[in-house]
Sequence to fold (801 residues):
Amino acid sequence: MIVTGSWLKDFVDYNYAPTELSHRLTMAGLEVDNLELLGEGLDAVIVARLLAVEAHPDADKLTLCRVATGSEEVQVVCGATNHRSGDLVALAQVGAVLPGDFKIKKSKIRGCVSMGMLCSEKELGLADNAAGIMILPAGLTLGEPVFSALGIKDARYELGLTPNRADCLSVLGVAREVAAMTGGKLKPLVLDLAEEGAPVFAQTSVTIEAAEDCPRYAARLIRGVKIGPSPAWLAQRIESVGMRSINNVVDVTNYILMELGQPLHAFDFMHLRDQRIVVKHARDGELFTTLDGQERKLLASDLVICDGAGPVALAGIMGGLNSEVKDVTTDILLESAYFNPLTVRRTSKRLGIHSESSHRFERGTDVANLLVALDRATQLIVATAGGTVARGAIDVYPQVIPSREIPLRLAKITQVLGEELPAGQVCEMLESLGLTLVSDGPERYLVTVPHFRHDLEREIDLIEEVVRLNGYDNIPLSMPNGRADCQLLPRSRKLANLTRDHFVAAGYSELINYSFVSPASWDQVQLPADDPRRATVNVLNPLTDEQSVMRTSLVPSVLQSVAGNLAYRTLDLRLFELRPVFHPHHGAELPTEQLRLCAALCGRREPQGWANGDADVDFYDLKGVLENLLATLHINDVTWQGDASDVFLHPGKSCTLRSGESVLGTLGEVHPRVLANFDIDTPVIILDLNMAALISRTGDHPGFKPVSRFPVLQRDTALLVADILPAADILKVVAKSRIRDIEDVVIFDLYCGKGIPAGKKSVAIRVSYRSVEKTLTDDEINAAHGKLVNKLCQQLEAEIR
Fold:
């Protein structure tokens, strides 16, 4: 929101310098993002008169201008074409510094001396565009600084308003705040409207068929207007707040929008079929072309302004091309209405239309000030475009919206503020904002909130207004009372943090991706049509189709991150994400959240260097990290099921992790087709874990065992087993053998080839024996090892090689 100091002074008198007012507004909660002093440092730009305009002798598109400054005559070379002898112009004299730090110097242009520059509005910072130099109105004094002569030496404040302060989306609203700060009074608008001719009710009508979305609609009829350029004061004022001058009628509606915060719309009355207005909902699928020339497909929830045949405007958002005010328009119907903010916001967001009108209607306008804005605009239109006003104004207000009433306790103000304020001071501050207070008991009031303050809903909102006007700087300093409590994390959170720390310690970088993904993600990872992970929670208002559903798996997001890093030539990756996924829960309002971990690995095993190898990572690198995690969590009964995995993994190069009856997750190399779907051209190893299942299988610390002081003895045995036998089966037999002094067993060799029968493989194991009580003898170890080998041969149908 942009306001100027001169416009504010039309409503309230104050003596603050621009910088002080900027500070006070900011401290009152209306943050001033930018303060621009118009005309500051531009006194060297003066009013001058063109005495003669001649063609440049050496340039077709330049002119030589003889300019009178009031004290001398100078020659200036000009490139514009909209000037002639006798015009008053803005002359930037030699030495002047224009906006953008552009310094004017004496120069020679195509052989002719130029003693300054004739300026346009754009070069003076008064407009974004300009078709030529600035032609000043007659009667100004030569030699006077232009900004002073035009009365536009001003301060422009750009406010960064929060969405709840819709009341300050107008000059009047900001002036009300200034009056409250200074203790001043708002100046009332002077309305002097002459009506003549037939009553408006005999010429047109307004019908509201959707009163819940349009509680009030008012209109006036003005005949015989002449559309044309706005007078200089009107064009300059709306341009000073960042708007573009279009024509006198449209400029007046924009003027009222900025001055009073009430959006208006002018219809070409002769283009209204049946010359009447009907406010209703659109038909589902109805097509309508807005002022920007775009055809819009409407829904039954959209509110439209119709004539006798169809829509002529999107209520509160944008007018229609079929009723646009044009240069030939002579009769206009001026609309001033109040629309349901939710309805306007819903249609505006869906259609992607954001206008100054919708910006205000979405946040709530002042339904009580609607007629004042209408009469003010009518008065200005007659003053700038002529015409006669039909007697009376249409005002359809079927159900009056009551003012909100909020109880207020002075004791509560003291409790929140930390100091006691006199009751009279509290009442004075709130009444300065337009609120009405009535005593409701000892130190209690019933506060009536005006319709322009949609943000005041509770007692604490009123207290905030008191604190704000009393000054945040005046809040007394005090040390808060409290105590520090030590809250222990839940076990699940502690174990999740432990898992995160484990992967970070292993050299993995944590990812934080959006929880929203594209529905096409499930096709990318080859999920079957009946896979439960395809049942997703849809986002009601997605930013894009690529973020329209909540993810049920972390795998697509992690693979997308891998692909993005590879595209930037980061080839050696160790990534993980520990985040929830979301599954719809039938009959429940909220989805079910499930914490999962997904880790990905690709590239070289070691950083590139002369002392490091060139091997790439493989399945066992990530398996090793996971095995260490399982050991840390004391999960010992894990099986690696190699004949089962997930659809996005490579068969034969992947497995499923099980612990008891629980499936902990899957691990393996990503399927080549899935990699191709993500434009990944290098093998990727991925881990997908169900953290809830993992945490549920976590065991307690087994306790410390004494370290044996006796030596370890080992025995090696090579066994011929079936080539389809998992190595884990060998380790299971050893673990269940119940042979007392076995300390450890490892598989140290695997051989298939010459000398080995078909369908067989040679697996060599090394068993370590140690007692905590004595040194074992060879006979004891041989006996124990023989017993173990017999168990292996019997249970696995193995042979000693």
Residues 46 and 632 are 81 Å apart (CA to CA). The chain has a mean pLDDT of 90. The chain is about 25% helix and 30% strand.
